[in-house]
Fold these 3 entries.
Entry 1:
Amino acid sequence: MKITIITPFPEILSGPLSTSILGRAGSNGIVEYNVIDLREFGKGPHKKIDDYPFSGGPGMVMLAEPIFEAFESEFSGVNANLKVILPSPSGVKLDQELSKELSKEKELVFICGHYKGVDERVVESLVTDEISIGDYVLSGGEIPALVIIDSIVRLLDGAINDPESAETDSFSHPLLDVPHYTRPANFRGMEVPEILLSGDHEKIRRWKDDMRLQRTRERRSDLLRGDKS
């Protein structure tokens, strides 16, 4: 998979994309990251990328022209098969199913907005998918883009060492994941549940099933109702 990210702040991306699973996937050729610095396409001597909104009002809006030119520096014309994602509070909410769908794409493009947002003509002409990571406001699109990218890349073949581990993660099935413990069995008087030390795999499996259901009832009962709102 190839992932292109258009951003005025590429330095925000450099650490996360070169570290841990995202970094290893890049180093191993599972994914190729292509970060385009939007400011190289800014207007005038100060490389301007934003301006005041028509009709007035507070805040600045990102100019359409630098974004179009940054996009066209990599892609010629409109590709109906290319997913161009704008992280946005107006988008559909990210969930595991959407990440799975996007992980099947060969190429993705992310446009990172800032300020009051991007000129709507960018949304109308370039963007194919607006995606929200939650009902709150962040300072820019880089962190939401990284959240979406992380959720996608870890699903690619070879990205994580133990694919079976990912299959039991929360949201990879209808229930939340179980609590996990590792050595030592007794840490400062806090003991691991005895069943996990029993070696009885069937009893452990039933315990985990019960814990998944209990934890989901207590913390995310909306999942049991199938409520995605």
Entry 2:
Amino acid sequence: MPVVITASEEFRHERKLVPAGYALAEVLALVRQHPCGFHEAFPPRWVNNVYLDSEGLNDYHDHVTGLAIRSKSRIRWYGELRGSIPKPVFEIKHKRGIVNGKRSSVLTPMSLNGSLTESTLRDMLRDLEKENLLWSCLDYRQPSLINRYHRHYYLSGDGRVRLTVDSNLSFYEPDNTTESLASQSPEEYSVVIELKYMPADPDDAADIAGWFPCRVVRCSKYLLGIEATRRA
């Protein structure tokens, strides 16, 4: 099966806001009222990720210590968490100081039913071309976390700032995705706004962020998930 490589190393800024005390419907109403004229860019959808990390969770610890140059690896898909996954994508997200970039490659179809180990993942992707980025990642990483959340997508009126609203964030151990065993995000992160913009537009993004009754936070869904599942 052919594999399409869609590499992109365009670096951008990300800013995360926590609207503590606001329900999802209230946050969405605020976005629609924003003077920047945000409009819906895509229909809302569920986002699922399998994160890959070393046995000692090196990527997690790099984030905790705040290394300026770090990365995280994940397989992402949209829609249902379990069952057939027709269009998974492998992504390596790089952090370089205050900007982020991402390289992606399309994977062959896979499925998730119950648990996901390194060996089952390798077996499901046995038809994947050996040049795919994922194979080199699996030389020293394995499934470490599964998360899932619902995302709304918006674009500013001038098209320069992307805004997403994430909610219903939950986490699973890779070896057991039973719904009743899911860990939930801390209450203060029940709704998270993310702004994404090019390095040339920091002032616009600051103005946009300042309009919301929110505080700017360092918030990594991967860190929240590792800490939630390891405590469970």
Entry 3:
Amino acid sequence: MRIGVFGGTFDPIHRTHVDIGRAALAHKGLDRVLFVVSADPPHKGGDEITPADDRYAMVEAALKSEPGLEPCDLELHREGPSYTADTMKALRGLYPDAEFFLIIGQDALIDLPGWRSPQGILDEARLLVLPRPSEVRAIPAVLEGHYEMLPFAESLMSSTDVRRRLAEGDAAADSLPPAVFDIVQERGLYHAHR
């Protein structure tokens, strides 16, 4: 089984996230892409994050009609920071024979040698990298042979921008899958108008 692993806070999940999952699925002929909702991302220290149950509900809703794209709540059941190395180890326990592809952005790729247990990640998964044409930093030589770029046009859409728009009273309906838009409205997330 070939499994893509796409982690994030998904606060909120938006259309580009779903497009990335579709692109990975098609490009590598994956059986599934798991959208791993982060409980306590170590790189977001101090940032306010929407409660995990709301974020997971939005991911579930966004992927409900997306064949091969699945929500994953693995990190939500683990105490402490959501380290990717721990998640990959746990996934290996669940899928001992799987071939994993960890989907990350080029900026994250460059930072990966500073993550917790980078070699543990590289031992478990090949890296499928979203190009960031605006990224000017060089990819560390130690990562050569461990990654490939995912053909995907850079998008300016970000969860930060979606949250800002919602807080300003913009429905941001063009950025959110319809089912996610409904949850945002129903729960009044991001100060969206009910």
